[in-house]
Amino acid sequence: MEKFFKQSVKEALNFYVYALVDPRDKKIFYVGKGSGDRVFQHAEDSLNENDESLKLSTIRNIHSANMEVEYYIIRHNLSEHEAYLVESTIIDLLTYEAFNRENILTNLVKGHHQWNEGIKTEEEINILYDCKKIEPIPGDKLLLVSLNKTYKQSKAKGIYRRADDYESARKYWKLSDAKAHQVQYVLGIYRGIVRIVIKVNTCTKTSIGENGEIYNPPRYIFEGDIQSDSPYLNKDVSDYPFGSGGEKTYIPRDMSYWSSKKEQ
């Protein structure tokens, strides 16, 4: 039976933050924000959509056990911005690895602005607001890619919806063949700071994105290993600007280190 709030309840709730709870173990498996009947919409989606997301799969499994999702309104009568902040704080608390060894949420992304405004150690606060400038190691060929369109997954759309920072940084980049095959490290940059470093193992070209978008000319996808102890991680790269609307730049900037062929 479809659930809904009466109009008077909707008006009293305004924007709110809610939790979906699995009745089988009484654990929260999803945290969200919304207004009106948003809290109930996921259960309806699980009946009508073919989406195989973990969230909807969990709801279907609950229904298969002849049980119903339990709904909790955590905070209500909020502005949209307040709901945004409360939601992100709760998600951070439930997913932060130092506090939770097991990620119990099925949310696609972690809390909004988690890096910028989320839970931080003392060291991370200093990294964020007093980070050192990058010191490129002589001989390293670095591709710097902008994560501005993918880092905030709550606002990302289409091809910019990605599972994590690795997926955001490794694809889809318009590069010349000569340059692409020389890249040793891909550095994902958000707000002028290196957020992820990938040591490149292989690179391949594709003419179509995972959402069906066609690329002409083809674009590059990198495969590699995340370098959590890289000297480049959390460093300021403001000395290597992308330029207006740019999505990539290179270190070193001296073109003698790279192919002189034009970008394809």
Automatic annotation (TrEMBL):
Start and end residues of each GIY-YIG domain: 13-101
Keyword Hydrolase: yes
SUPFAM superfamilies named among the record's database cross-references: GIY-YIG endonuclease
Top-level division of the source organism's lineage: Bacteria
Swiss-Prot/TrEMBL keywords: Endonuclease, Hydrolase, Nuclease
Pfam families for this protein: LEM-3_GIY-YIG
Span of the signal peptide: none
Transmembrane feature ranges: none
Listed GO MF terms: endonuclease activity
Protein name: Endonuclease
